[in-house]
Amino acid sequence: MGAGETGTPPRRRAVPWAVLALWIGLLAVVGPFAAKLSDVQHNRAVDYLPSSADSTRVARIEDRLPGGETTELVLVYHRDGGLRPADRDTAARQVAAITRANPLTGVPRAVPSSDGSTLMYRVAGNAPGTDEKKRDAFVNDVRDVARDTDGMSVVVGGPGALATDAGDVYDSLGGPLLYTTVAVVAVLLVLIYRSPLLWLVPLAVAGVADYLSMGVVYGLNQAFGTVVSGQNSGVMTILVFGAGTDYALLIISRYREELRRVERPYDAMKESLRGCGPAVLASSGTVAAGLLCLLAADLNSTRGMGPTGTVGVLCALVAMLTLLPAVLVLLGRRVFWPLVPAYGSEARRRRNLFAAMGSSAGRRPLVVLASGTALLGALALGTLNLPGALRQEDAFVHRPDSVTAMETLARAYPRQGTQPITVITPTGRADATLSAARRHTGVASAERGRSGGGWTEVSVIARAAPQSAAETATIKSLRADLGGSYVGGPSAQQLDLRDASARDRLVVVPIVLVSVLLILVLLLRALVAPLLLVAAVIAVWGAALGIGGLVFGPLFGFEGTDPGLGLLSFVFLVALGVDYGIFLMHRMREESLSGAEPAAAALTALRTTGGVIASAGLVLAATFAVLTNMGLLQLVELGFVICVGVLLDTFLVRTYLVTSASVALGRKVWWPGALSRERDPGKAGRQPPVAVG
Hints:
Layout: H1 10-34, H2 45-48, H3 54-64, E1 71-78, H4 85-101, E2 110-112, E3 118-125, H5 132-145, E4 153-157, H6 159-193, H7 200-224, H8 230-261, H9 265-292, H10 300-331, H11 353-363, H12 365-380, H13 401-412, E5 421-426, H14 430-439, E6 443-452, E7 455-462, H15 469-481, E8 486-488, H16 490-524, H17 528-551, H18 565-593, H19 598-625, H20 633-665
Antiparallel strand pairs: 1-3, 1-4, 2-3, 5-7, 5-8, 6-7
Helix pairs in contact: 1-7, 1-10, 5-6, 6-8, 6-19, 7-8, 7-10, 8-9, 8-10, 8-19, 9-10, 9-16, 9-18, 11-19, 11-20, 12-17, 12-20, 16-17, 16-18, 17-18, 17-20, 18-19, 18-20, 19-20
């Protein structure tokens, strides 16, 4: 047992061991399910879309047609300066070999470019169906046959190849994402604790919480069909380690203080949880509530992010409130070596940076508040410079063959569509639909495809390049003209993705704001303070997105912005930003209850919680920064915006703006609660403050 536990009652000594045993049993039960989480991940574009979207209905009906879902590929043969006759013969032989080895729908035909440099073959197979592993095997088999020959480049593109390349990136995220996150958190914890042992404890507990969350999410998928994607599971891991480490920092900081005051580690931990537990519970509850608001989203991927993220936060919370204290108590004071907090000792007094920062904000609060607000507003103007919607071919950090194929096609066929638009129409109207599609001014060709279950497939090739404004106009016009039919395909899916994302922002953002505001009102028993915190996190979100607009295109060369970036970054920054606001305001409220004047309460709260909040903010920002090293721009952009937002919130908004606003408002910050009224001097000091850091 730990030092200082001599004479500890046997029952108290048994509690940490019992908690540890319960966790071991829990992991033994959850373990087999956690290992299966990757098996239920789906990363097809159609899996992200709402069930009501045209492109989703097209994909669902295609699944029921003879042969099931079709995997569309494009074989691109290219030689600078023009293809030779031998190149064309080689291409024909390779395509014939692919046709013999795979059951294809239709006969691939050569489509030469006008400059003679490129030859395009459209290849479609439905043997893979909706099985992503079979689809990947089909794509890789085609790539094995279609190879570069004698200086002629051969690449395989098309929707199927793009989906396979995206799936490869998602499959590669799990290990690197976890290892990089663990490494980043480990380095920060070593710097924060300056101990060769202590950093291992919260890191190991966070790892246990991550494993538990994987098992729980797998259970949600099996029981309720919760959508699990590579993005959702990756962000869940980030949340577990980021939020979990934040909670650990608060608990360990308070535990260190109590060890100087209380002899036995068990009793010290009990006091620590009593002191900071309510704030940790409130902050995690706010994050969970904000994430659950994503259930109102129409996009399947965004809606799935709500429960998966919530599971991650709650698993981190449970682990940090039970397993972490048990392990710390069992290890005793020696876990803090070499800076062991001896019983009865005084903490070494050091110059408090946050006291100095708070003093500067307190001297001229209105000037600080106005300057900071103007800075955030100026940064938010950068949102006007955000790139347009991210196209499929621009979604990869390192361009795979499928993107190379699309770029080659765009150069060789500048005024011609190269990927099909799929129209699903009732079989009884198939001829009329086909005729109408062929007459359409934006359509280059249209062919009748499979029929089954009362539906017929029509494959349409637009005159315009994929995902261009002209092709988008063609898709919208076809949907308007072909009543009773559904228009889908890769480009239509991207259009539906943008439309659904825009709808979700209008619906989810107000729900998040109202939910978070209500929780803050109940927690702080005031209206002005919650409004202040909500306004602060909205300003942080705008500034962080604005910084993204200033660097994404001009500095990083990004060609587009993920449609879901605005909503997801808003939810995370509001929920996580309010999380830190709770720590600060909770302490400020307790200081006010003890009789401190408003200005003194604000500065004391910043001085006592600033260090822990800064450490927590650095850890959280660093964990989200890990996403900037991933292979998909949607993750890079999300990680960058949240990282920048957390740093702004931690070192500018929380430190200067919220503090200066609280000083300037005085007691009005607690309006209309009892603290907003002048207190009876005789009652001051009756309620001691409860620290949260």
